[in-house]
UniProtKB/TrEMBL annotation:
It comes from Leucocoprinus leucothites. Coiled coil: none annotated. One of its GO terms (biological process) is mitochondrial translational elongation. This is Elongation factor Ts, mitochondrial. The gene is TSF1. InterPro entries: EF-Ts_dimer_sf, Transl_elong_EFTs/EF1B, Transl_elong_EFTs/EF1B_dimer, UBA-like_sf.
Amino acid sequence: MSNFLRLQSSRLASRCYSTQQPVKASIKLVAELRKLTEVSLSKAREALSATNNDLDAALKWLERDLVTTGAKKAAKVQGRSTTQGLISVSMLSSGVGVKTGSGYGGVRAAMIELNCETDFVGRNELFGRLAADIAHTAAFISDATGSSAALQPCSPELLQDAPLLSRADPGAAPTGTVAAAIRDAIAKLGENITLRRAASVVENSPQQADLGLRLSSYVHGTIEDPSQGRIGSLALLALKFKKLPELIASEAFREDLGRLERGLARQITGFETYSIKGEGEEALYNQPFMMFGHEFSDISVRDALTIWSRKKGQTSQVLTEEGVAVLDFAKWTVGEQIAEDTSPAA
């Protein structure tokens, strides 16, 4: 009897003190999981080990873990200074003559500033993709306001409550809000990330055959994506020609117009430009049009627009003898001090 009791006691002790060895994560699945989620190597191993190398279960495990660790990380880094980051522009519709060269379309675009702590994270692919998606979301959900100022500020707080839309896959269903995506990025990148500001321009097609709207943008200090960098501008232009439908249908005209638009956006970005008209060299129309080049580099933007317009067609008195006019613009630099009213004075 005593031998039997000793045997049972030995078996019980064995069950109490033995521990199950954790499942070793599959190297192949670790690589696949990191490709799908961009989590760290250690986190991918932990997820697969906890789910017995079940990829689908590991993805769900990571989703739950991101919510927990992301919230903790966000709380930990909250308040840290964020002076680096990106200006990101999303242009969904650039206006009259888009794609087909005929017909008339409205304009729809947005520009945002997403900040982080270091330039290293600001150059990270995940951070750049997040900035692009937020800009795309702002452009998509904004409405026409009917205000005299075409470029309207978007509330960062309201934007963070919106579902995040993918720029790379616009048809994909959103998986979370902008705020949740920022929280997840904080967990993955380890830095404080803040949405500092956003602005959009949404204008419907003018109800005049001789009048069209166009958008132009330029971003300086880009890395890989030409729509993101350290300094960005977004400009709204008006075209008024008696034969605008014929002109905009011409590929040659559209190419020339594209060069003019890019020159204007580069001028705004590259120079100290704070208004469209007015006194001094800080007014766009007073500046030598250096960014357009050719015969226009030694004359003012105002005169260059007049000459260009006269070459292309009959000008309009409505636009003060200009067939092309700049109606509004915004120019942002990462980390700059934000004035109360950043809209350019006419």
